[in-house]
Design brief:
Elements: H1 2-18, E1 23-31, E2 34-44, E3 51-57, H2 69-76, E4 92-98, E5 101-102, E6 111-120, E7 125-135, E8 145-146, E9 150-153, E10 159-160, E11 184-190, E12 196-199, E13 202-205, E14 208-213, E15 219-222, E16 227-233, E17 236-243, H3 248-269, E18 275-279, H4 280-286, E19 294-296, E20 299-301, H5 306-323, H6 331-353, H7 387-397, H8 413-435, H9 437-451, H10 458-468, H11 476-479, E21 488-496, E22 499-506, E23 514-519, E24 525-530, E25 538-543, E26 550-553, E27 568-570, E28 580-584, E29 594-606, E30 610-618, E31 627-636, E32 642-652, E33 659-674, E34 677-690, E35 698-711, H12 715-719, E36 725-738, E37 742-753, E38 756-770, E39 773-787, E40 796-797, E41 838-839, E42 842-853, E43 856-866, E44 873-885, E45 889-897, E46 900-901, E47 913-916, H13 920-928
Parallel strand pairs: 1-11, 17-18, 28-29
Antiparallel strand pairs: 1-2, 2-7, 3-6, 3-10, 4-5, 4-7, 8-9, 9-15, 11-14, 12-15, 13-14, 16-17, 19-20, 21-22, 22-25, 23-24, 23-26, 26-27, 29-30, 30-31, 31-32, 32-33, 33-34, 34-35, 35-36, 36-37, 37-38, 38-39, 39-42, 40-41, 42-43, 43-44, 44-45, 45-46, 45-47
Length: about 950
């Protein structure tokens, strides 16, 4: 009797404790892919007004159809599996009882608004009893749900939104590891489970888990046991559990490195969660970027040793886990503080343990034909810690970076790393080193201790950091709210009275500090820190070091600058500061002190020049420059003379404007367009690429150009009064949307020449109507506003393009017979059958292609055209397309057309068409889709 009384008393005390704070008590059972739950929610009204409804997040509904934000997000990332998922692979909430009454709303909503029995006053508690059943989705879509060998549960329980105190904002799951219900006490019991269950909560009894976290709870249910490491840091026990198989060798390395990681992080932050659980999904998303082995065909190039990779990977994983639990934080708004602090920890760890490691690791030591080609590159000299600045440099060169304070869901995948993590981490590192890392760490420890269980206020965090740093970090509050193009410039110096006076300018009124280092002949260096004023002008500073031979500002990408080419000065002579010219064979990371010219062998072919052999000279490096040129002289084995091309472009890329890039260019070219006949072309162009959402595939470009052409003419052409010289002006606009399911393209152009004016328009739509099966629709229209040309050179082509501007990559420009004349370019009329010739008044065509089986498509073309002094005429064709390399090498077999059944024609072999479009730029653009 006494024992029963004690048990009853403990139970009552537990219930009382639960009722005094946000708590969720769950009894769960998994059977045949269904999660059955009995749940009690103890909820406190933290708003300033009465609540009549409580919002519960039903994120399982995110998998229910093709029209959810989750599906749209996956399509933005070029992932189609969920879009084409079968009904039995999707998850859904089957039924829901609230306080033993059926829920009367729609179970497919991600936001369930539960009406409370009576209004809930501020600070008052309420209790809800739920009973519901969830059919779990396949884990192939997000990593959560039913996998091949396990089940990973996260975001499948119905829980309140910790960051919507008024319970009226709709929130949708997008697989961003968003924080939903945090700083809540959980007690979760799994019934009748013979499998092993792991969690980021502490297991207090078999299959019973308890705890309070600053992130959402997750559970892994699997047949095999996980690797569990128990370690002691500062006299306290901590657990790290890995939810995936690891080899014995990996276990040894993990057991060695993880305690070091935890001790290092504890020293920096003063905090570690009692338990860290790392799932396979978390590992694949958050391990160290850029240390993987490079595998090519049967070859493998190892950049770092297995031990080094384990060290880097697990420090990245553990530091991310710790950073996510430092505060109660809304990831959508405060992602950059969490990610920035994680990167700060990572940078400090690399500086301590890998101070001299290179970013390419051992890659530069590999031999090819007895040589080490990468050893000659500047990239091989870059240190591992410079990776953070390089990522920022790369994305700003594209002008596709975003402000640090951007909503997390609006960041592109690359900017999630380059901006939220790397740029912010570099800024925290700058401030820490300016004030002294020990002082920064002490600030961090104090702030975490005081605010660990409070919702993070980023403005308060920055204000307190400003005071702690002696106002050196004051600039951050404004800095994070805009895209930046900060540049420090070291203008000049003067030695005087055992010091060096320098003049430094910056292009911003923000009072950003900078790091200055002086280098000496004996290899030693000294470091100085300077605060700046609130003006975007030059200012003088004194360096108490008269022996310096070189002065550098923000070396090793200490601050995320836009340009590092003016951050240094040599003190021994003017010649030392001149940019040296250096020729290289392999595109390299740009060296601020050198003007690099890259030489690459060039080879080309057309029917008149035959093989074109030469060398390309260009300054385009691995990171784009504003001014770029390409000089391509070639020896023509056909004409035995020098042909080739030259072009130069200059890009204007304002950080924040209605346009992203304004490209001004000039180009010239000389090639043969027929046997013994060459053409010369000079072009001046301007292209304006409008600003775009970096997550979007939509682009808009306005272009204008002037082109001058001069052609050699044959005696026959001279007799026919053909054009030897002509000028063409173009004004065009392109809209494109490379959506992975519904691809759209719209183009309009006005073209003017002395003897004609022409309007053309083209639209293209490609729909993936079933997985990997596409339907393509193209509509083209061309109309001459006036046409007084002396021949048909400038007419609109029906089945062959009119390449008077020499803008298409034709292997035989003037061929009228032979295999090369059968080359097809999808432009103008777009007909594959040889119907008529050209059009001198107007043309409208419609081109259709549909996939029927693997690499085989069917096509059909329809059109109406009118020539001067002739009536309009309807034409059509159809056939089969074989895709050797889709969009690059394809073959068309005409079948039925206006001409009849073409396979019965004796010259059918001459009617087969092919495309040849090996565009390296298009290939690169294809593979980077989904990243930015």
């Amino acid at each position: 009797m006494k024992k029963k009384t004690i048990i009853l008393l403990c139970l009552l005390l537990n219930l009382f404790a639960f009722s005094q704070k946000d708590s969720i008590i769950i009894d769960a059972k998994i059977s045949a892919g269904t999660l059955s739950v009995r749940e009690k929610i103890y909820y406190q009204n933290k708003s300033e007004s009465e609540l009549t409804h409580l919002k519960l997040q039903n994120f399982t509904a995110a998998y229910k159809s093709r029209n959810t934000p989750l599906v749209r997000r996956k399509l933005e990332d070029r992932k189609k599996d969920l879009y084409y998922a079968k009904p039995n692979e999707r998850g859904r909430l089957v039924y829901l009882m609230i306080d033993k009454k059926p829920y009367e709303g729609v179970l497919d909503d991600e936001n369930l608004f539960i009406k409370l029995p009576k209004p809930l006053a501020p600070n008052a508690f309420t209790e809800l009893s739920l009973e519901y059943s969830v059919i779990l989705p396949s884990a192939q879509f997000t990593g959560y749900g039913i996998g091949k060998n396990n089940t990973l549960l996260k975001y499948f329980f119905l829980v309140p939104d910790s960051f919507d105190r008024d319970n009226f904002l709709e929130k949708y799951y997008k697989d961003l590891e968003e924080n939903v219900n945090v700083n809540t006490f959980y007690r979760v019991k799994f019934e009748n489970s013979a499998q092993n269950i792991s969690s980021n909560l502490t297991e207090v009894a078999p299959n019973i888990f308890e705890g309070k976290l600053n992130k959402d709870v997750e559970f892994l249910i699997a047949d095999q046991e996980n690797y569990l490491l128990e370690t002691i840091v500062d006299g306290q026990k901590y657990l790290v559990e890995l939810g995936y198989p690891v080899t014995e060798q990996e276990k040894e390395l993990i057991a060695f490195y993880l305690p070091l990681h935890l001790h290092f992080i504890k020293e920096k932050t003063g905090f570690l969660p009692e338990k860290i659980f790392i799932s396979e999904k978390f590992k694949s998303k958050n391990d160290f970027f850029g240390n993987d082995d490079i595998k090519f065909w049967k070859f493998k190039f190892q950049m770092f040793t297995d031990a080094e990779k384990i060290d880097m990977d697990y420090f990245s994983l553990v530091s991310q886990q710790v950073a996510e639990q430092l505060f109660v934080s809304d990831k959508e708004k405060n992602h950059w503080i969490t990610n920035g602090l994680k990167t700060y920890l990572e940078i400090q760890y690399l500086k301590k343990n890998y101070p001299d490691h290179k970013i390419l690791g051992a890659l530069s030591d590999y031999k090819i034909l007895g040589m080490k080609p990468l050893k000659l590159s500047f990239a091989s000299r870059l240190k591992l810690i410079e990776r953070y600045g390089l990522a920022y440099q790369y994305i700003t060169a594209q002008n596709l970076d975003q402000k640090i304070d951007e909503k997390f869901s609006d960041l592109s995948n690359f900017n999630e790393m380059a901006i939220s993590q790397f740029e912010t981490g570099s800024l925290f590192t700058l401030i820490a080193e300016k004030m002294g890392t020990s002082y920064f760490d002490n600030f961090l420890k104090g702030y975490i201790t005081k605010n660990h269980t409070s919702e993070l206020d980023k403005r308060e965090f920055l204000d307190q950091l400003t005071v702690a740093s002696g106002y050196s970090s004051e600039f951050l509050e404004k800095y994070v709210k805009r895209k930046q193009r900060i540049n420090f410039k070291l203008n000049d110096f003067e030695r005087k009275d055992n010091v060096i006076n320098i003049n430094v300018s910056k292009n911003t009124a923000q009072n950003i500090p900078f790091k200055l280092e002086t280098f000496h002949e004996d290899g030693s260096k000294k470091t100085f820190w300077y605060d700046t004023n609130y003006q975007d002008s030059s200012c003088g500073y004194v360096i108490p070091d008269n022996e310096a031979v070189k002065i550098v500002i923000n070396d090793l990408y200490a601050f995320p600058e836009n340009n590092f080419r003016d951050n240094y000065l040599y003190t021994k002579g003017i010649k030392d500061n001149a940019k040296k010219l250096r020729f290289k064979l392999i595109p390299d990371n740009p060296n601020a002190e050198i003007n690099e010219v890259y030489l690459t062998p060039g080879i080309g072919w057309n029917n008149y020049d035959k093989f074109l052999l030469g060398i390309r000279f260009k300054n385009k490096s691995l990171i784009d420059k504003r001014f770029q040129y390409l000089i391509s002289p070639f020896f023509s084995t056909g004409s035995k003379d020098i042909n080739g091309s030259m072009n130069a472009v200059y890009k204007i890329q304002p950080a924040e404007s209605f346009y992203r890039t304004l490209t001004l260019g000039v180009a010239t070219a000389k090639y043969n367009y027929d046997f013994g006949l060459s053409y010369k072309k000079i072009s001046f162009s301007g292209n304006m690429s409008f600003n775009k959402n970096p997550r979007s595939e939509i682009s808009r470009i306005l272009s204008a150009s002037y082109n001058f052409f001069e052609r050699d003419l044959s005696p026959k052409m001279i007799a026919e009064n053909d054009y030897a010289k002509y000028n063409i002006w173009n004004l065009g606009f392109v809209y494109s949307d490379n959506n992975v399911i519904k691809e759209k393209y719209i183009f309009g152009n006005f073209q003017y020449m002395e003897d004609y004016a022409k309007l053309t328009a083209e639209s293209y739509y490609r729909l993936e109507y079933a997985k990997n099966k596409k339907l393509s629709l193209r509509l083209y229209g061309g109309y001459f506003l006036r046409n007084h040309t002396r021949n048909n050179n400038f007419d609109i082509g029906i089945s062959k393009v009119s390449n008077y501007a020499f803008s298409y990559n034709l292997l035989a420009q003037s061929a009228i017979s032979g295999i090369l004349s059968q080359q097809f370019i999808m432009a103008e009329g777009g007909f594959k059958s040889y119907i008529n010739g050209s059009v001198d008044q107007w043309l409208i065509t419609h081109n259709v292609e549909a996939n029927v089986w693997k690499m085989i498509d069917v096509y059909a073309d329809f059109g109406v055209y009118k020539n001067r002094e002739h009536s309009p005429k309807f034409i059509w064709d159809s056939g089969i397309k074989f895709k050797v390399i889709p969009d690059f090498i394809e073959v068309y077999f005409p079948m039925q057309s206006s001409l009849g059944f073409e396979p019965k024609f004796k010259d059918y072999g001459n009617r087969i068409r092919f495309t040849f479009n090996l565009n390296v730029g298009a290939l690169i653009g294809y593979f980077r889709r989904g990243w930015y």
